[in-house]
Write a structure and sequence with these properties.
Shape: elongated
Order of helices and strands: HHHHHHHHHEHEHEEEHEHHHEHEEEE
Strand content: 15-25%
Structural class: alpha/beta
Radius of gyration: 23 Å
Helix content: 40-55%
Number of strands: 11
Number of helices: 16
C-alpha cells in the first residue's frame, strides 16, 4: 500500500536502523538471512520506500561487518549496495552510493589493498580542505542559493553584526571563509538602509590559504556592488600558508573602525592540528572585535570509534541529501557536483580515514561552547530580531517549512526535518576594550 505522505529520508533510515537492530541480534547473519528478513508491508511503505529501506539496511549491515573486520562479508553486502544505489536516484540511493565507496576504501586501507600511488592521489584531492569552504565554484554557489539552510544562517549572522555596529560609521569585516561574498553583500544591503548613522567606510579583509586570484575576483564583485549602493568600500585579500599561521600583524586596522569577524564552516578544519584553534582564537581576541560570528555543522565527527563516527555521519548526510532532494531537481548538474566533489569527499574522509589524516572533524555547539569559553570568549545572545529574520528567510523557499530553527542556549541551531544541520553562535570578549594605539596590531590613524 502506498503511503499517504511520502516519508523523509531520515524516517526511512530510522526504519532501516530498527530493522538492522533486530537483524544484528541474531547469532550470525549473511546475505541469505538478510534477503528473507525484510517485510516492507508491515511498515505501510510504498514500493520505492521499501527499496530505500532495504538499501539502507544493507549499508548498515556492511558497516557492521567492516567494524567487526569481517571484510569478505562486507564486500558482498557492498556489491549489492553498489548495484542498487545511484548518483541520480533518491536521496537514500545517492547517500548510500557515497558511503558504500567510503566503506570500500576503508576496507582497502585496512587490508593494504590501496596502492601508495592511489593513496597519494586521494590525499591530494583534500590537500586544501579549506578551499572547499571558500570556493567560489559556480555549482556550489548555485546550490547554496537554492537551499535554505545556509541562507538562514548567513542572514541571522548579518543581523547580529548589524545590531553590534549600530553606532559605527566605519566597519571592518574580517571574513575567514568568504566564498562568493554572499554574506558581505547582505551586510552591504543592511548598512545601506541605515538612516541614523550612515556608513562612511566598509572594509572587508578576506583570509585564505590558496586561490588568491579567486578571492580578488570576489573582492572586485563586492566593490562593484558597494559602488551601486553608494557605500565607500575597501577590500584586502590576505594569504597564509596554513590556518595556524594567522597572526595579529597580518591585519591592518585603523582607529575608529568597529571590527567584526565572520567564520563560516572553517573551524572544523582546525581540530586536526594541536593548538591551532586556540592560536586562532587568541589572534581574533587581540583584534578586539565587537562580535565574532561562528557557523559550524551541528554534528559530532570527532569520535575515534569507527561505528560511532559512521552512524553520526550517516544520519547527518542523509538529512543533507534529503534537503537537496526537496530543493533541487535530481538531474541538476550543480547538485551532482556538490554531492560528488564536496559532500562525497567529506564522507570519504570521515568514514575511510583515521588519525591525523581525517581532516573533517565537526563538533556540536556544546563542544564549541566549551572550547570558546575556555579560551576566554563570552557567548552573546541572539536577539529576537535575529530569530525573526531566520524564520522570514526560510519562508522564502518552497520547502522552507522543513527548515526550522530553535534556540540552544543563547545561540541558534538550524534543522532540516528535525535533524540538526547548522549551528550559529556569536561571541564577545570577556571585557570589551577600546582600541589602543599600543595595541599589538598594525593600527593606523587614517590620513586626512
Amino acid at each position: 500500500m502506498t503511503s499517504i505522505h511520502e516519508l523523509s529520508a531520515a524516517s526511512l533510515l530510522k526504519i532501516a536502523r530498527a530493522n538492522f537492530s533486530k537483524l544484528s541480534s541474531l547469532e550470525c547473519f549473511d546475505l541469505s538471512v538478510l534477503k528473507k528478513f525484510f517485510d516492507g508491508g508491515c511498515f505501510n511503505l510504498s514500493g520505492n520506500e521499501i527499496k530505500d529501506v532495504e538499501l539502507a539496511t544493507l549499508l548498515l549491515a556492511s558497516a557492521d561487518k567492516v567494524g567487526n573486520r569481517q571484510f569478505d562479508h562486507a564486500r558482498k553486502f557492498l556489491n549489492l549496495c553498489d548495484f542498487l544505489s545511484s548518483i541520480a536516484g533518491s536521496s537514500i540511493q545517492r547517500v548510500v552510493h557515497y558511503f558504500s565507496k567510503a566503506l570500500r576504501e576503508k576496507i582497502d586501507g585496512e587490508t593494504g589493498a590501496t596502492t601508495s600511488k592511489a593513496r597519494e592521489s586521494r590525499e591530494g584531492e583534500l590537500s586544501h580542505p579549506y578551499e572547499t569552504i571558500v570556493s567560489s565554484n559556480p555549482a556550489l554557489i548555485t546550490c547554496f542559493l537554492k537551499v535554505p539552510l545556509i541562507q538562514v544562517a548567513q542572514f541571522v549572522g548579518v543581523q547580529a553584526i548589524i545590531e553590534n555596529v549600530a553606532s559605527a560609521k566605519k566597519v571592518h569585516c574580517i571574513d575567514l571563509a568568504i566564498r562568493s561574498g554572499a554574506q558581505c553583500t547582505a551586510l552591504m544591503q543592511a548598512l545601506a538602509t541605515r538612516d541614523e548613522c550612515p556608513i562612511e567606510l566598509l572594509k572587508v579583509t578576506a583570509v585564505g590559504t590558496t586561490s588568491q586570484t579567486k578571492m580578488e575576483e570576489t573582492g572586485k564583485r563586492l566593490a562593484c556592488f558597494a559602488e551601486a549602493l553608494n557605500i565607500p568600500f575597501l577590500f584586502n585579500a590576505i594569504m597564509v600558508t596554513d590556518l595556524k599561521d594567522i597572526s595579529e600583524d597580518i591585519f591592518e586596522l585603523n582607529d575608529g573602525e568597529a571590527v567584526v569577524i565572520n567564520s563560516l564552516l572553517l573551524l572544523r578544519h582546525t581540530l586536526t592540528q594541536p593548538d591551532c584553534l586556540e592560536s586562532i582564537i587568541r589572534v581574533l581576541k587581540n583584534l578586539n572585535p565587537c562580535i565574532v560570528v561562528v557557523n559550524e555543522f551541528e554534528v559530532n565527527h570527532t569520535s575515534p570509534v569507527f561505528v560511532e563516527r559512521f552512524s553520526e555521519a550517516l544520519s547527518f548526510y542523509t538529512a543533507f541529501f534529503d534537503c537537496l532532494e526537496d530543493c533541487m531537481d535530481r538531474c541538476d548538474q550543480n547538485r551532482r557536483i556538490l554531492e560528488a566533489a564536496y559532500l562525497g569527499q567529506e564522507i570519504r574522509n570521515i568514514v575511510a580515514v583515521e588519525d591525523e589524516d581525517r581532516i573533517f572533524r565537526d563538533m556540536k555547539l556544546e563542544a564549541w561552547r566549551t572550547s570558546f569559553t575556555n579560551f576566554g570568549l563570552v557567548e552573546a545572545e541572539l536577539s529576537s530580531s535575529s530569530l525573526y529574520q531566520a524564520d522570514l528567510v526560510a519562508k522564502q523557499f518552497a520547502s522552507g517549512n522543513s527548515c526550522t530553527c530553535y534556540r540552544n542556549g543563547k545561540s541558534l541551531v538550524v534543522n532540516w526535518k528535525e535533524t540538526p544541520i547548522l549551528s550559529l553562535s556569536t561571541w564577545k570578549l570577556c571585557e570589551q576594550r577600546k582600541p589602543s594605539m599600543n595595541f599589538n596590531v598594525k593600527r593606523r590613524t587614517p590620513s586626512k
